[in-house]
Structure formats: C-alpha cells, structure tokens
Design a protein that fits this description.
Structural class of chain A: mainly alpha
Strand content of chain A: under 5%
Strand order of the largest sheet of chain B: 1-2
Strand content of chain B: under 5%
Oligomer: heterodimer
Shape of chain B: globular
Number of helices of chain B: 15
Helix content of chain A: over 70%
Largest interface: A-B, 47 and 45 residues
Number of helices of chain A: 14
Number of strands of chain A: 2
Shape of chain A: globular
Distance between the termini of chain A: 20 Å
Order of helices and strands of chain B: HHHHHHHEHHHHEHHHH
C-alpha cells in the first residue's frame, strides 16, 4: 500500500534504530510528564509531597485497573464486581487479624483466599454465561456486585472497622519534603505485586499458556492448553491483584467499610481506559498517571474540589474515549467485515 | 387468534387490571405499585435504546436525576404544576439525551458502557458542588407532595401513554431503522439508514423516558430530590430490569419493572436473611440466577414457550 509519508514519520526515519521506537507521541508525552514532575518536585516541596502521595494512590488504582484488564483481555468482560471482590477479601484479612494472625501472615493468607475466590467466581457464575451475550455477563457481574456487598454487610455489618496499619506512622524528611512511610510502603507492595505477576506471565510456562488462552483460545486449545482452566486461573490472579489493591487502600482510608472499593473501582475504570483496555502496562501507567494528575489538580486548581474529583476523572475517561479510544498503549482495532 | 389479537387482548386485560388495582390496595401498596410504574417507564426507555438500537447505557440514573431535579426545582422556585414539570423533564432530558448521543456515536459495546457509567457516577456529584442551586446533599424539596393514589394514577397513566408512543415509534419506519442499526450498522447504512440521526434520536427518546421516570421517582420520595437516591445503584437497577425483561421486547418490560420494584421489598420478608441487609443478598442472588437460567430474559422465556407450542402441531401449519 502506497502511503504518503508524513513529516514526523520522515523525521523518525533519520534517527538511529534505538531512538526510533521512543520518538512517538505517547512515549514523548510521558517522558515530558516525568520531566515536569521531577522538575516540579525539585522546585517545590508541596509539589513533591503531592506527587508521592499521588503515586501511592495511583498504584492502587493501577493494581485494580490491571485486574480489570487481565479479565477483559481473557474474556472481553468488564467485571463490575472486581472492586467488591477486593473489598470482601479485605474483610477476610480483617477477620484473620482479629483471630490473632499478624498483619503480614493475614496478608498472604488473604491472597490465597482471593485466588480461590476468583477461580470459584469464574467457574460458577461466569463460565455458564460467557458465550451467551455481553450484556448477560455484565448483568451477572452487576448481580455479583450487589450479592457480595450484601453478604459482607450481612456478615460483618455496615459500621466502620479498624485494622492495624501495615506500615508504621513514621514520616521521613528529605530536605524539607515529608514522605509518609505508608505511601512508600503502598507504592512498594503494589509495584512488587505487579512485577511478580508480570514475571509470571512473561517467564513461566503457566503464564505462556494463560496468555495463549486469552489471546488465541482456538489455537491454544489445538496445542493442548486447557483454555477453560487457564481462564479460571486468570480470574484467580485478577482477584489476587484486587486483594492487594484492597489491602493497600484500607490503610489509606483508615477505616474498613463495605463501600471501601467503590470509588476506587471507578478510578480503576478510568485508568484502564486511559491506558487502553487491552494493555496491562497501560493499566498500570494509566493508574499512576491518574493518581498523580488528580492529586496535583486537586492541589493547584481551586475549582476541582473533592466533590468534583470523580467527575473530573470521568471527564478524563470521556476525553480519552473520544480522542483516542484505544487508550495510550492500546492498538486501534481493525475489524474486517 | 392471530398474534395481533392476542397482543390487543393482553393490552386490554393488563390495562383493566392496572386501572382497577388501586381500589383493591392499601395506601402503602399503592405507593409500591406506583414505583413499579416508575421503573416501567425507565426500563421501557432503556429498552428502546439498548434493545432496539443496540446501544448499551449504564447511565440512565443520570437522566432520571436530571428529570427529578427538574420537577423538584420548578416546584420549589415557581410552584409549577407537577404534571407540567414532568413534561419539562421530558423535554430537557430529550435534548440532553441528543447531546449525549452525539459523542456516543463514536463508541460502542464496552466503551459505551463505561462512558455512560461515567455519566451515572458524575451527575449525582454535581448537586454537592453547586449546592446553592441544587441543594447539596440535603437535596431539593418540591413545594407540593402527592398522595400514593395520585402517584399511582400519574405513573401508570404516563406509563400507558409512553408505552403506546413507544409502540407507534417502533412499529414503523423508525423502529425498522433502529433494528437495522442494532443488527448491522454497515448493512443499515448501505440501505440508506442515516446512522447519526437515528442513533442520537434513540438516545434522546430513551433519555426523555428516563426523565419522566425520574420526575415521578422524586414525587414518590415525598418530593425530595437527593443525590443519594440517584446513585450508581439506580442505573444498575434499571439495567438489571431491562435485562430481566429481555431486550428488544416491549412485553417483558412489565416483568422487569415488577422484578426491580418489588423484589427488594419482598425479599425483606424472607425469614432466613430477615436482617436489614439480607435483601441485597437475595436480590443479587436472584439477579445472577435469572441471568444464568434465562439469559434472554423474561421475554426470551415467553418466546421459547411460544416456539414450543408452535412446534407441537407442526402438521397443521402450511
């Protein structure tokens, strides 16, 4: 196909190989944003503090967004119950701690519970409707949303619960900037869990089989991958990520209540769309970008008060959908008809 | 009987039952039945959009909020006749629906679902921000309140009128265009259906229905328009109702409305879970079960029954 070479394309051609991949609007924009954040942080202590807090929040959005993306890639389903599943597993951790486990014992035990929970949800509720219609699956996840919310409220009550803080209340001071240990801990745990998951998908046989089952189910089945089992395991890992997000979101809000994850799920939607619904890396970057962006806007734009945070996040979502529906990292889908 | 005769007979019977019902019910149950009527209107509107023109929306609670606030504010500030405020809600939401329908032209499927979800989340936040005009979290109180019987009459009269209008709209050229778009946009375009016009029209009509429903919804809560009442859950309930009803059928809507309107109240009395939060458990469980057992909704179930009946005397048919 003969195409007319655009000016940016011509400029790109003259660059060395390793630079060529980077000189595109999205990486350039992200790089510019990073430079802006670093320079801003060096110039102003407030700015640095807001950026770090935003990063911590953003990784929570990113974890949940990644859970959504994993499921979307595998089954083309937006799981509206993802946040409630995360909330339920956080309550499991609360229960374990009140039975006498230490925080980190409970943390890892909860991740196991979350994995089983995700697998069970997929096998019992999603698999039967998976091949009927998109709307049926959406409604089932909405039903699960209401069901899980009801079950948790029924079992533990709607009142506020308190959990011990995983990270101390220490605040580090680096040249006039205060970093809360909690923010740093959240950042570390979320990034670590995302990296572990990435390594699992990238370097293990199980990960390869799961990617194959998600992207090319028919071909995967032909070479002996048990596609149904892989999809269920995928839901399990998504639930684990959700649990990490829930456990990290709880100390940030100081209390545990059934509505813990509802706003976070909404930010995760926006983050997933921002990064591109099909792109795991995009979900994480989208989450972090959204967290930082919202925090800075909240700090420096007087009009965006706390009531307008959510609408503002969704304005971002809407703009992304209209301008670049594939998101920052997604590929525009070409459909043959 | 021919299918149209069956339909006519069902309409007449349903109309007669609904007209006589308030005389047999207590005031509390009249209120409940009126609420079913409100859901009927909203689900009918969503069905026009999702079931007929194939555009999903999880944001109809937002249009209901706008309709509801229209009624409450007009009544508070200008003592406008309540029926008149419903017509205003209809007009305002129709225009806003067209406006929302324009960007929706570029989106489909999951993306449209998320964009409309954004609407459902954002709109209830606006009264908190602009609290002087929209009353903040306390909401807006309309100047007049209505009795349950008035509400019953109003909501089911409106439901009947809107049902007939929907039927008239959908049986002719417009309905054909909607269905063509739903089944294949490309085929519809090549047959001369102008996509932008019909798709935004579907959004406008659907939003107008939601507006009327919202206006009645506010009258049902003693004339209080509150942001909490119009949360995400309302949008989800309407979607659940439409799915239970079965998309693309006008008849299932009654079942869907009854499901959403009555089930939470009924399940409060289930002995096992009788606590305050048990109703969510029952509601969620039944939603999931209905979707697992009847993925085409109530209308699909009826159609399957009809097919079974039609299949038996196969020798009689030409």
């Amino acid at each position: 196909m003969a195409t007319v070479e655009t000016r940016p394309a011509r400029l790109r051609r003259d660059l060395p190989q390793w630079l060529r991949a980077l000189v595109r609007p999205v990486p350039l924009g992200l790089a510019a944003a990073c430079v802006f954040l670093v320079v801003g942080s060096l110039l102003s202590n407030d700015f640095a503090q807001q950026t770090v807090a935003g990063l911590a929040q953003g990784t929570i959005f990113g974890s949940l967004a990644l859970a959504l993306v994993l499921i979307y890639r595998a089954t083309e389903v937006i799981n509206f119950a993802q946040g409630e599943m995360a909330m339920a597993t956080t309550y499991v951790a609360y229960q374990l701690i009140s039975w006498g486990l230490s925080y980190w014992e409970a943390f890892f035990a909860t991740l196991v519970v979350a994995f089983v929970f995700g697998v069970v949800v997929q096998v019992v509720f999603i698999r039967p409707v998976q091949h009927t219609s998109v709307i049926a699956v959406v409604i089932v996840t909405v039903g699960l949303f209401i069901l899980i919310d009801g079950l948790v409220t029924w079992k533990w009550g709607a009142d506020l619960k308190f959990m011990p803080a995983p990270f101390g209340k220490t605040v580090y001071h680096v040249g006039g900037v205060a970093f809360a240990q909690q923010d740093l801990g959240t950042l570390l745990v979320s990034v670590l869990s995302v990296l572990l998951l990435w390594a699992l998908f990238r370097f293990t046989k199980l990960g390869l089989a799961m990617r194959a089952a998600a992207l090319r189910p028919a071909s995967a089945r032909l070479v002996g991958v048990r596609v149904d089992r892989m999809l269920a395991i995928g839901w399990g890992f998504a639930a684990v990520l959700g649990a990490v997000a829930g456990l990290m979101a709880e100390p940030a809000q100081y209390v545990l209540q059934p509505s813990l994850m509802q706003p976070i799920l909404l930010y995760a939607f926006a983050a997933a769309v921002l990064g591109g619904l099909e792109s795991p890396a995009g979900a994480v970057v989208g989450g972090i970008a959204l967290g930082v962006f919202l925090n800075l806007v909240g700090q420096y734009v007087g009009f965006v008060t706390s009531e307008l945070r959510l609408p503002f996040a969704f304005a971002v979502l809407l703009v992304v959908l209209l301008v670049k529906p594939a998101g920052l990292f997604g590929r525009a889908r070409v459909r043959r008809v | 009987m021919k299918p149209s005769a069956v339909g006519l007979a069902t309409t007449v019977v349903a109309g007669a039952v609904l007209a006589l019902l308030p005389f047999a019910l207590s005031s509390y149950h009249q209120g409940l039945a009126a609420q079913v009527g409100v859901y009927f209107i909203a689900i009918l509107g969503l069905n026009i959009l999702t079931g007929y023109s194939g555009q999903i929306s999880i944001g109809h609670g937002a249009f209901m909020a706008i309709g509801g606030y229209t009624t409450a504010i007009m009544s508070r500030d200008h003592r406008t006749n309540l029926i008149l405020t419903m017509l205003m809600a209809l007009a305002i939401c129709f225009v806003l629906g067209l406006v929302v329908g324009l960007p929706a032209l570029r989106l489909s499927g999951v993306y449209l679902a998320l964009a409309t979800f954004a609407l459902a989340v954002s709109v209830p936040q606006l009264p908190l921000k602009f609290s002087t005009f929209l009353g903040g979290s306390n909401g807006v109180q309309s100047a007049e309140t209505v009795t349950h019987r008035w509400l019953y009459g109003a909501s089911w009269t409106a439901a009947a009128i809107l049902f007939v209008l929907a039927w008239l709209l959908l049986r002719g050229r417009t309905g054909r265009a909607f269905r063509a778009i739903r089944d294949s946009e490309i085929a519809a375009t090549s047959s001369g259906v102008r996509l932008p016009i019909y798709k935004t029209l579907a959004f406008g009509v659907s939003a107008a229905y939601a507006g009327v429903a919202g206006s009645l919804y506010v009258l049902g809560t003693n004339g209080f328009a509150q942001p909490n009442e119009f949360g995400v859950l309302l949008s989800l309930q309407i979607l659940v109702g439409a799915a239970v009803a079965g998309l693309g059928s006008l008849w299932g809507v009654l079942a869907g409305a009854a499901f959403v309107g009555l089930l939470p109240t009924i399940s409060k009395d289930v002995p096992l879970v009788g606590s305050a939060h048990g109703q969510d458990v029952v509601f969620g469980l039944i939603v999931v079960l209905v979707m697992l057992l009847l993925p085409q909704g109530f209308a699909g179930f009826l159609a399957r029954l009809a097919r079974l009946r039609a299949a038996r005397p196969a020798s009689d048919r030409p």
